[in-house]
Amino acid sequence: MTGAFDDDPTESSARPKGLLGGGLSxxxxxxxxxxxxxxxxxLESIPAPRPPAGEGELxxxxxxxxxxxxxxxxxxxxxxxxxxxxxxxxATGNLHRTSGHPNFAEFVMVNWEISESQTYRLMDExxxxxxxxQLGWHPRESQVRELVDIKSSAGNRAAVAVYDAVARAVAPxxxxxxxxxxxxxxxxxxxxxxxxxxxxxxxxxxxxxxxxAPRPEPSADPxxxxxxxxxxxxxxxxxxxxxxxxxxxxxxxxTDSPIGESGAELSNPKGAAAKSDDxxxxxxxxxxxxxxxxxxxxxxVRRALEQDPQTTTAVLDEIDTNLNKIGRAVAVQRPA
Length: 336
Fold this sequence. Notes:
The chain is an all-alpha fold. The protein is built from 15 helices and no strands.
């Protein structure tokens, strides 16, 4: 069963043209009947986030805004950006203050069972989702999550351009955009900046997704290697700077391996030192994570959010980003 934030395997691969291809204009031109959508089911029906009108009971306008936002969050499984805007409007206006759950995170958990980190991630990502939906795409929250690093360094516009370029590249093949594909592309891109144009980003993405060039066919009659040449490649000569010429077989110190694989016994002591360094780095990371887990708690986070929501949200987003990076780095196949 597909979750609210997962890729949908049944989603159609047919896509609009996207950022560089005209967006939704053709769809709007073909529309002949306009039906007003129920409140809470479109982004336009969600009131913009604004400070509370006052303390105590909600005004009639605030009551209407709260109901629209609750309907928007209920629409989470269809369009996360509507839920994200709804959550931000509730939080910014303190519209939950008379709900019996004055703590915003608790209010959201009681009503929708959305965790605090996920709540603030939705609030941070909804503008990307909105922009993509206006281009005709239907992104999943798990997909936009893979663009968080790009958003942090280059802004929403760059993140939208990356998704759009990937979606346009895979559309002719009949394949779907997936969170894994977006993550692979995001990690392969060079550092982007807010000045990076959609055209530049599109070219970078196209180069990443382009199939590799075919390897040249080996020569049918390779030139024979003389004995003197063989001796030279084994390291008897110099490279002109006084150092030995390393061959493929010399790299792994295993003359029996055609690809330079190491033998059963490691002859280079530096290899063992590198392994120890890697393990030590992992152990140091674990120690830092243990210390961090002991110094943080939900009550402390809630107090920080109540005291300075904007700064605390930015810090929590950065924590989420780094935890995601660590999770991706350690997601390797391990011995059974």
